[in-house]
Amino acid sequence: MNEPTNTPMTLLERKATSILQRFYGYSSFRPLQLDIIKHAINGNDCVVLMPTGGGKSLCFQIPALIMDGCTIVVTPLIALMQDQVSALISNGIPAATINSNQSDADNRRILDGIYEGKIKLLYISPERLLIEMERWSKEIKISLIAIDEAHCISQWGHDFRPDYTRLSKIKEVYPDVPIMALTATADRLTRDDIGNQLKLSNPRLFLGSFDRPNISIKVHHNLSASSRFSVICHMIDKYEKDSGIVYCMTRKTAEKLNQKLMESGYRSTLYHAGLSAKARSEAHRQFINGDVQVVCATVAFGMGIDKSNIRWVIHNNLPPNIESYYQEIGRAGRDGANAETILFYNVSDLMVLRNFVDESGQADINREKLNRMVQFAEASVCRRRILLSYFSEQYNHDCGNCDVCSNPPSRFDGTILAQKAISALLRLNQSVGINTLIDVLRGSARADIISRGYHKIKTYGAGRDLSNSEWRDYISQMIMTGIFEINYSEKNRLSITPYGLSIVKNGVTIQLARYVPPLLKQKNKTTKIETLIAPEQQLLFTLKELRSRLSKKYGLPPYMVLSDKSLEAMANKAPIDMSQFCEIEGISEIKAIKYWRPFVTSIRKYKGITQPMPSGQSESETLMLIEKGHSVKFIAEAKNIQETTVYKHIVSLIRNDKLKSFDNIITKQQYLRVMDLYRQHREVMYEILRTEMPQGLPGVALAIADFLLRRKANENK
Hints:
CATH superfamily of the largest domain: P-loop containing nucleotide triphosphate hydrolases
Number of strands: 17
Shape: elongated
Radius of gyration: 31 Å
Number of helices: 34
Strand order of the largest sheet: 3-4-2-5-6-1-7
Helix content: 40-55%
CATH architecture of the largest domain: 3-Layer(aba) Sandwich
Strand content: 5-15%
Structural class: alpha/beta
C-alpha cells in the first residue's frame, strides 16, 4: 500500500491545488474532487460516480502527479486513450498509451520511459493489462490503478463487456495498490456490483451531483421524418462553427440521414459498428478535429469521446434506458458552456425497442428500464428532476432549462377529439394503423383509401381542421394514456381499449396537452446567420477562427488548444496583455505561454488598440514559469527557445530586481564553484566550466553575486 502522506492535509490540499492551477488552469476544485484525491493518495479503494464532463479524470490524474511511480488507467477504447494522452501532453503532463495500433518499438520506448520515471500516466486496454500485469508487478512501481467506464464490468450495466469481468484479477496481483473505479452512469444496482466484481477492499462510494445545468433538455413528440430533419438542420445552422451528434437507433437510419445532410450541403460524417476500422477512425478524427459539423451515429459512437466543445446532441430515436440517454446527452457541453439536447419520441420507436427488450437476456429489468425512459419522454414535469431522481439525487426545485419548465404544457378538454378518433377506428373495424387513421380523419383522397371505401364512413374528414402533425401528436397522447393500443404482431394496427370505449359510451372526459409546433429550419440561411452573429458575439467568433488556425498549426483538435468556455471568458474579459490572459480560467501555464500572444494580438486588433505590445514580454513569460517552479529546460521547450536565451532572461530579471529566489535555477555548489573560479581564474573560467554546467549558468551566478552585493549595500544604508 502507498504509505499515507506524512504531510498535513492542508499542505496536501495546497499541493493539489497548485497542480490544478499549473496544469489545468483552474483555481479551485469541483465538489468531491479533492476528497477523492486525498482518499486515493492515502492508499484506499473507491468507486467514483460522476456525470460525463463532471471532472472524473482529475480525480486520478492529480494523484498520479503527486504520488511516486506510474498510474495505470484502464479504458476500453484506443481512441479514448489517444485523445486523453494528447490532451495531457498539451498541458505539459507526462502521459502515454500502449496499444495494438502502435509498433512494438514504440511500446517498448514507452515502457522504458516508465522504468525511468518519465511517464506518470499510462493508458491501456483491459485486455493488454491482463497480459502484462504479472510482469509489471515485478518491474514497475505502480501508484494507482484507475478503471474508467467501470459500469462495463457489471452485468446490470447498460454496456456490459465480458473482458472487464477479468479485471477482478488486479487485486490478486496488486493487493496493496489502490483502485479507483469510475463511471458516469450507473444505477444503485450497478454501482454496488462494480465494487464486488473488482473485489475492492472496503471501497468508499463517491457520488457526485448528476446535475449538468448548462445542458438544456427538450423532447419533441411524434414528428414526421421531414420535421425531424428540419430540426436537425436548424441545430447545425444555429451552431454553424461548432459540432454536434445525432444518435440513431439503426445503422440504416444513420446512413440515410448522413447522406441527406451531405446532399443538403452540410459537413456530415457517419459512424457505426458495421464500418471498417479505418472508416470509423477517420470519422472519429474528422469529428474531434472539427472538420465536420455533425456525426450521424449509432450508440457505437461516444464512449471515449473526450471532445469538450460539443454544443448539441440529438436523439433521432428513443434510447432503451435512462443510463444510455444520460451518458449520451452528457457528451454535450463538457467544457461547462451552454449546450442543447433534443429527443425525438415516436411510438414506432417504442414498438421496436419493446421487441428488442423481449428478445434480450434480461427482459424483466430491461423492460422496466425502458418504461422509465418512456415516463421521462412523456413527462409533463421538470425533466431534470426526473433524471436526477433516477440516479438517487434529490432536486427540490424545477430546473428552468428544460422544455417543460420553459413552456409548461397547456391542457384542454380533448374529449371530442378522442371521440372522433375512436368513432373512426370503430367504423374501420380497428384494422388500420396510425397513418391511415389520420388520413381518414383528415379526408385524404389517397387512392387506397378510396379503393377500400374508407371515404364513405361517417367520420371521414371529421378532423380536417387539424394538421397531420397535430393529429399524430394527439393520437400518440391517446396511446400513452391507454385509449388505444398498438398490436405489434398484427402490422401495428390500432385497437380500442375498454377505457377508450368508455369515452364514447359512458361520457368519460379526457384532458390532452395542446400541440406545440416544433422549431423548424428557417428558409433564409443568410438571415439566420446574421441574426446569430450579434455584436457581442463577434469577438467570440473571431477567437474561434484563430483557435481553428492554431489547431491546424500545432496538429491538435481545437478544443485541446482552448475550450469554448475559456474562449467565452476571454471574449467577455478581452485581455490585452499576458498577465490578463493568464487570469482566464481553464488556461494552464503551458497554454498561457504558447497562446497568449496570438490571442491578445487578435483582441487588441479587434478593439482598435494600435500601440505596440509592451516590451519585455518574453522575460515576463520566463519569470512566471520560474516562479511556478519550472526548470530552465522545461521553460525552453515550452517557449520553443534555446536554454541559453532563458539564462539571458534570468540574468536580466536578477539585475532588474524582478527575481529574488534562485533555488530552482542554480545549486549552492554550482554558485560557489563559479565564484571561486571568477576570483582565481577569471580569464579561463568559461572554458573550464563548459563541461561542468550549462552554458549561461555562470552568468546567472555572477548576476546573483551582484544582487547580493546590492542588497547588502541597501541594508547598510
